[in-house]
Amino acid sequence: MAGHSKWANIQHRKGRQDEKRSASFSKIARELTVAAKMGGGDPAFNPRLRLATDRAKGVNMPKDKIDNAIKKGTGELEGVDYVEVRYEGYGINGAAVIVDCLTDNKTRTVADVRHAFNKYGGNLGTDGCVAFQFRHCGQLLFAPGVDEAALMDVAIECGADDVLSNDDGSVEVITAPNDFVAVRDALQAAGFVAEFGGVTMKADNETQLGGEDAQRMQKLIDVLEGLDDVQNVYTSVILDDE
């Protein structure tokens, strides 16, 4: 996209997300609990739990809180029974939005999500209305200047699905969701450390919003991400703050 830096946009977006996550151990604890419940309490054999544990350590979550959250998932400690629920809708100018939640009360959660959409210029849609526009995958983003040829060789060898070059010089490595941790670790061992990475819903086609529309869209995303039950918000738009 001419005149636009995908690197700068993702850097800004991830920075905002990390700030919010660091302020809320409770959201990370929910993810630890559900990950352990779904795939067992050993991060070595549970990629989702490994990611959640890495995230918890990255924001200096105390070890006892991490351990207790995992034990609640495995049943060693009594805990709240969280369920995963996804909502889909439309943001500013019809931008596709996916909201992933962990909740113990779906009635409360859907009411909160619907209220946020309605109040800040969006609309809550029906199941499946926008999910087909996204790909569930692992994503690793490398800063402009990385040795793309060498990175591609290692990435493909260790099982990545694709390597994408952006106009601003940044490079994305795409993996299957369950392969993300293995590919990330293999790349790190080869000296390629991503600036950002995670399992995400990546839009097949992105559209750019600027000016007031971008500000309104950012407000909607911020409000959704601020809800207690919301874990992740994905959108098809690139926000231009310039």
Largest sheet, in brief, is: 4 strands, antiparallel
Overall 3D form: flat
Q: State the order of secondary-structure elements, H for helix, E for strand.
A: HHHHEEHEEHEEHEEHEE
**Assembly status:** single chain
Class derived from helix and strand content: alpha+beta
Strands, count: 10
For the record, the CATH architecture of the largest domain stands as 2-Layer Sandwich
Helix content: 40-55%
- On the 0 to 100 scale, the average pLDDT is 89
Question: Main sheet: which strands, in order across?
Answer: 3-1-2-9
Structure description:
There is one protein chain. With 242 residues, this protein is α+β, with helices and mostly antiparallel strands. 44% of the residues lie in helices and 24% in strands. The protein folds into 3 domains: 69 residues, Arc Repressor Mutant, subunit A, CATH 1.10.10; 86 residues, YebC, transcriptional regulation domain (Alpha-Beta Plaits, 2-Layer Sandwich); 70 residues, Alpha-Beta Plaits (2-Layer Sandwich). Helix 2 packs antiparallel against helix 3 and helix 2 runs parallel beside helix 4. It is flat, with a radius of gyration of 18 Å.
